[in-house]
Amino acid sequence: MTIPYKSTFKNDIIEWARDHRCHHKWTDTHADPHNTNRGFFFSHMGWLLVKKHPQVRIQGKKLDLSDLFADPVLVFQRKYYIPMVLLFCFLLPTVIPVYFWKESPLIAFYTAALFRYCFLLHSTWFINSAAHMFGYKPYDSRISPVESVWTSVTAVGEGGHNFHHTFPQDYRASEYSMKLNWTCLFIDAFAAIGWVYDRKFVSEEYVQRQCDKHGDPEKRHKWSTFS
């Protein structure tokens, strides 16, 4: 999992997890690294172009990250962040097409490395921006995250954001079928061979009660035709 992650050239896993925990704990406040209230561009990519808001740093230091630093793989990738990114994000994606099907090095670099990298970045960033602004809210209408099917397609299942923020403990991250949630399919595949365990999910009854109380139950199965 660490190697594919390095091919995306994002922050190291420990830093990413810390920011994600801040995002969930203080959503749409100054302690949220990509606070939607600061506008589409900021939540999409602007937050990476400026210094973090002081509240992000203050609140982030209060989080318990001991579980992350106790993982030797995460500590290793943090220590060797730059060489791993150069290898897995740029060098190998360029070399593999050149070696195996005689692609031009320039074309391989600009497509398999740079274009792929940019596409993956924006697919991820749209979850922070579009999936907090443009969509519907079947589970909790009081929060900004929405259900965004098109971002679920580009981000292989991460667009069920109203579900994800309402039930952050659910590993599935959405109720979309496997056609729209390849991330869940990936996790389940590794669970089948014993590499993933202790998957948590909320019950059907709990989800329905939440929809009835704070959401819009009529829109819950809006995309059930994809099942």
From TrEMBL:
Does the UniProt entry include the keyword Lipid metabolism?
A: yes
Q: Which domain of life is it from?
A: Eukaryota
**Signal peptide as annotated in the record:** none
Q: Which CDD domains match?
A: Delta9-FADS-like (cd03505)
Q: Which GO terms describe its cellular component?
A: endoplasmic reticulum membrane
Which keywords does this chain's UniProt record carry? Fatty acid biosynthesis, Fatty acid metabolism, Lipid biosynthesis, Lipid metabolism, Membrane, Oxidoreductase, Transmembrane, Transmembrane helix
- Its transmembrane ranges are 80-101, 107-127
GO MF assignments: iron ion binding; stearoyl-CoA 9-desaturase activity
Annotated family: Belongs to the fatty acid desaturase type 1 family.
Q: What is known of its domains?
A: The histidine box domains are involved in binding the catalytic metal ions.
What PANTHER family does its record include?
ACYL-COA DESATURASE, DESATURASE 1, ISOFORM A-RELATED
In its UniProt entry, what is this protein called? Answer: Fatty acid desaturase domain-containing protein
- What does the record give as the organism's lineage? Eukaryota, Metazoa, Ecdysozoa, Nematoda, Chromadorea
